Amino acid sequence: MEVQEKQDVTLIDEALLRLRRIWTRQLRSRKAGGDPGRPVLMSNIIVVNAVHRLSRECAEVTVGGVAEQVDVDPSTASRLVNDAIAAGLVERAASRVDARRVRLVLTEAGHRVREAVARYRREHLGRVLADWDPQEREVFARMLARFAEASIATPADTARFDRLVAEALAGDPVQTP
């Protein structure tokens, strides 16, 4: 990797980490509509968005579908779904296809929270980009969408990631490509 390319990749990596922290921080202390003492977590929003997206794509949304959508193992998805249910954003309903299964649906509060969060994000982005000229916004939107598509098409090598972390924990020198 050339020096300039390495610097660019480092800047992008650091920016993505900062953005994740910024978006996550907004949800740390917010309260859900159902239980006034229960916080709405980023994981709740992720599940709500997954259930919403899947409900438009398939007949019934299951925990397994949520696991695939958010790229976690089924046991983690089950815990995340249970948290979203406890927050009053998702509920289980009888399957219309198989009486032995349940499907996941958004509650009215789940729909309202999803819409409110999406509206907030878009308003916030509008404020962030307010002093950008229309051409800059258009280029940024296209490049960010391209980056997202490329990220989906080029999944991370999780085995290599796990190996690098294990080596770092063992005190082995970290090898870079």
Describe the structure.
The protein folds into two domains: 31-131, Winged helix-like DNA-binding domain superfamily/Winged helix DNA-binding domain (Arc Repressor Mutant, subunit A), CATH 1.10.10; 134-177, no CATH class. The chain contains seven helices and two strands. The protein has helices at residues 3-25, 42-57, 63-70, 74-86, 108-128, 134-153, 158-169; strands at 90-94, 102-106. A two-stranded antiparallel ribbon has the order 1-2. β1 (90-94) and β2 (102-106) form a beta hairpin. It comes from Thermocatellispora tengchongensis.
Overview features:
single chain, 177 residues, mainly alpha, Arc Repressor Mutant, subunit A, 2 domains, two-stranded antiparallel sheet, globular, WH_DNA-bd_sf, DNA-binding transcription factor activity, DNA-binding MarR family transcriptional regulator, WH-like_DNA-bd_sf
